[in-house]
Amino acid sequence: MGTGATFALDAMPLIRDLHLPVDYSARFIAEGVLLPLVSAGDAEGGSAEALTSHEDGRLWRVRLDGRLRWSDGTPLRAKDAVRGIGHALRRGSNTARTFMDHSGGAPPAAEVGPLTVEYRFSRPVAFARQLFSTPDFAPLHPDRKGVLGNPALGPYCVRRWEKERIALVRNPHWKREESGPEKLDFVLVRRAEDAITRYLSGELDMTATTGFGVPEVARCTGRKDAVGRPISVFASLDFGGRAPGFVGRPGLRRALSRLIDRAALERCTHGLLLPWSPGAHERHGTPVAGHSALRRATHHGLEIAYSDFAPNAEAAEELARQLRDALCVPVDAVRLSYDTYVRASADRDFCLLYSLTSPFFDHPAGTLSFWRSTGRAARQNAFADAEFDRLLDLAEGCAYPEQAAERWRDAEARWWWTVPKIPLAQVRAQYLRSPRLGGPPLSGSGLLRFERLLEPAPS
Q1: pTM of structure
Q2: In sequence order, what are the residues at sequence separation of 6 or more whose Cβ sits closer than 8 angstroms to the Cβ of residue 220?
Q3: Can you tell me the distance from the alpha carbon of 356 to that of 315, in angstroms, rounded to the nearest whole number?
């Protein structure tokens, strides 16, 4: 394996723009190529060395680390950071468009010194540190022509991007203490059972973190190199256009939620799903509908659609069994191809949908702020609630930690009461990782700090 490390992917990135990753594979690889302003969970790991708030949180001034250089030797400058957020806005980044002031008055980002940038937001933002950790705010090189040959600011740059393989090599101008393996290879292995076989043969240092199904978990039980941890991917049951009995009736949705045994989801998936129902989901004090009202709303039966990935089938079938037994009505689990699942989700053309989502960044705003009545998620789901908007305004601009935490809890409780979905489970990543590959574990976001990995020792 030489001086590198090889990782399996269960799907290739959908697009090649790592500044706007739209899927998990792209985000996983982007962690090695980009250097966001702030590194999640690391006070000194980003491209910024200082952040200050002005105008009650509507303006944030960022001073960049002048020691950093792009992989072609060019020093980092403020204009690179301005270029990065400008690219995100032009490409329709949900994060950038949700928070940045792009009304046409003052520019959303401006160079105010060789290493200083001002970011202007549409409303007070007290969580800029978490927001700045997203790839949307990562600086962008002026000579960017495409992913290949594009100078990188992070510890690695892309050397090769093929149909089923992506190769990264170390940034020769990376100045931080950590350097990681000389090269990283990401290879497409669609079937988890094949990834295990190739791992055991020594071809891979790590299998894909989210590819295992129930058979693979059983096959790897007891192995010391089998690794598992909860990550920030959450399963929910969404209500669509073919469930009219639940529209505008949060008490009825809450009643359905209370019929679900979430621990059974953990058992039927061999621990790939962990019971999850946030405290805010039960916090709202409005009465829950009775069982008779629930029976009337479901007397024609229900369908639970799911995308064809492991272990969605086991989870959907278990949910269907539980609701069938509790309500004494027909409840079917319906498998969809991924493309069909995406279309159904966007069009709300389903009865119930077993869905998986992740916050955009590690803060309540990473989920809730996108559901403001004028936001994209709210529009797609025909969601509008003036009280939620009011609570969100109070939470977003509060700069006092204890008071802000309470306001976010209030906003989250209102959201869970009004949003057409109920929480089910948190995903537990399960994969094989060679003990030869030292370094940090997978983060709670399901990412690796590649520059902190140790060179795999010879077999």
Answers
A1: 0.91
A2: 196, 212, 226, 430, 432
A3: 12
